[in-house]
Amino acid sequence: MGIIEVDDDITIEKIRSLINKASLTTVVAVASFVPKCEQLMSDLGKLNGSIIVLKTDESDELEEVAIELGLKNIPSYQIYTKGVLTTSSKEGSEVTVDSIQQSLEKAATSCCPPSSSNCAPSNNSAVACCPNPNADQPSEAADILKLVSTSYANTVNKNPGGCCVSEDPNLNAYDMEELIKAGAKEANLGLGCGNPLTFSKLQEGETVVDLGSGAGIDCFLASQKVGASGKVIGIDMTPDMLSTARANAKKRLQGDPNRNDNVQFRLGEIEYLPVADNVADCVISNCVINLSPDKPQVFTEIFRILKKGGRIAISDVVNRPDVEIPIHLKTAEALLAESAGLLNWSPLMIIYEKLDFVILKLNRRRKVVR
């Protein structure tokens, strides 16, 4: 597409729209009063793909757009692959056409955002961070579960083919001080989409079951809330994740003997929980049920293990039929969840009704798509 000249009054929404239209886009922030920008501007035509130039000294709007994108230095650049930010210039680094070209070549084989150091490219298009939406996705339940388990095993082992993660606990409503106190900091892999503990209203002495417990972050936080007389059971189907959670459980007790030793982890699928009937006061889950190929079975199991009057606290991704997932949010997990069948709002309410769940409160849904 070559170099794209943008209007002085362009908005961030229009810039994102332009970025999403091309498979490979470079956004460059320049200013005429910076001498090195003159040579850079004259050489930009040598680059491949779509090139959006923000001349930040020509209008306040262009400067604000650059800042909102994160292009605070002049000159600086970002590269997007299929709408996903894959790399950007480092502060203080030399920005030339050659350095941009090197980044473009790397972008052709990797699609992980700079903030996701645990995310690695994969040879499997169904597992890569930015997979090909047209690639064949698994449809059989066993294949979906296998892909989920493999992806999360790669994540915890920091191998290629893992899931893109968030490394900032604040993004998922976790308090760093609380994580440290509970001995849960090491268990934060950034794989959740919220914090179910913020609305679970756990009480001392209660039994909690966590579906898809991962490295144990929510279990360790729940452990502190239910006290020494309470109990927390984490369920995960990935052996490598389970081993990590158990190792983290030992470390947290070694770090502070006063922490509650009331957490256990069990290997199992959330569709067939290794838990007895009428055991749990509360079932929690964090961004896991959307990946299940049989969601009604999951909720049937939840109902089975809950005590009479028990409750659920689930933080998850729910599909809104009126909103299409933007291309820059179509990560491996998003595509995988589509294969499994995303949680849909209306059918979810029907499942609750059929199982005789009483809905006391539906928390406000966090808006993640603008």
Q: How would you describe the overall organization of this protein?
A:
This protein is an alpha/beta fold and about 375 residues long. The protein has eleven helices and twelve strands. The strands form three sheets. A five-stranded mixed beta sheet has the order 1-3-2-4-5, sandwiched between helices. It has a five-stranded parallel beta sheet with strand order 8-7-6-9-10. It has a two-stranded parallel ribbon with strand order 11-12. Helix 5 packs antiparallel against helix 10 (about 330-340). The chain starts with a strand and ends in a 16-residue tail after the last helix.
Sum up the structure in keywords.
single chain, 370 residues, alpha/beta, 5-stranded mixed β-sheet, 12 strands, disordered C terminus
Q: What structural class is derived from the secondary structure elements? A: alpha/beta
Determine the fraction of residues in helical runs and give it as a percent range: 25-40%
**Tally of alpha and pi helices:** 11
Low-confidence stretches: 110-134, 335-341, 364-370
Radius of gyration in whole Å, from Cα? Answer: 23 Å
Largest sheet: 5 strands, mixed
Shape: elongated
Distance between the termini: 26 Å
**Numbering strands along the chain, what is their spatial order in the largest sheet?**
1-3-2-4-5
SSE series: EHEHEHEEHHHEHEHEEHEEHEH
Count of distinct strands? 12
State the oligomer: single chain
Mean pLDDT: 76
SS strand fraction: 15-25%
